[in-house]
Amino acid sequence: MEEGDRPQLKTLHCSDLTIELDSLLSDGYRLDMIMPADDPREAIVSKSGESVRVVLSPGFSRQKPPEGGTQNWIAGRAGMEYRDLIPDRLDGRVIASHIRITEGGEVSDYVHYHKIKFQMIFCKAGWIRVVYEDQGPPFVLRAGDCVLQPPQIRHRVLESSAGAEVIEISSPAVHETWVEHEIKLPTLDVKRDRDFDGQRFVLHLADARTFDEVCAVAETAISAATQGYASVRTVRLAADGVYYREPFGEFILLYVLSGSIQPNGSNEKLLADDHVVFTHRAETLVISAFEDSEFLEVSLREI
Question: What predicted TM-score, i.e. pTM, was given to this entire model?
C-alpha cells in the first residue's frame, strides 16, 4: 500500500482505537500508520492487499491519565506517556511533549518513521537505547544527550531505564507515524552524512560539553544539519549569571533542567521542570539565574 492511497481506503469508525486495533491485529492485519503519536485517533491497517482506515469516532477520546498518573499525562504510542508542554500547539504548528517510560526494560516499539518538518529529542532523565537508519549499531541516550531526527529517518526505541524521560519537539504538531515493514535496523551501511529531505542526523553527547564558571553554552550541530532552520543548545548559568540570546526566528522554548531562572518578558520565576515559549521575538532575550541553573533552549526560524 502506498501512502497516497488513503482516499481509496475503506473506513471503519470506532469508540476505542486501542481495542479495535488489537482486534484487527489479532485477526492477521498489520499496522501501517498511526497518528498522532501522543494520543492516537487514526490508523491504517492492511491484510492480503486490503487496507482499512480506522478512525476514532467524534465524541470519543483516549485522553485518560495512565494508572496512578495525573490529568497532565496521557497514554500514547508504544506504551509511552505524554504531557503536552504547549496546550494550544501554536495552532498546530509545533508540539512540545514531555515523554516518560515508567517501566524499564524492552520497549514495545517497532521500526517506524515520521512525516515531519522538524523533530528533536532531548534526554532529560535516565537512559534509552535507540537505533537509526544508516547510523550504525544501537546506542544509548543518557540525560543531557539529544538527537535530531530528520524527516522520515527509520528508527526504533529498543529499551529504557525505569522512569526515563525525554523532551520531544516536532513540527507540525499532528503528523503521521508510518511503520517500516521492509527495512531492518541496524542497516548494514553506515552513512553518517546522509541527507534526509535536506537534514542530517545529529547525535549530541552531554559529556562532550565544556562549561566555564559563569555562563556556558553547549551548542549542538543541529543548526548546521537543518541548514539554519533550528538551533538546540543547553545553557548553564552560575548564580546571578546572565545569558543573552539574540533574536532567532518565530519560536523559542526554554525548559528548566535545574535551578531557577527568569527571562525578560516573563513575570514568574521558572523552576526545574518549568518551561516558557516565546514566538515572533524581535528583541534580545535576557535570562537571569537566581542560583546555579541549567536549561534547554530550542529555537525554530519559522513555524
Answer: 0.87
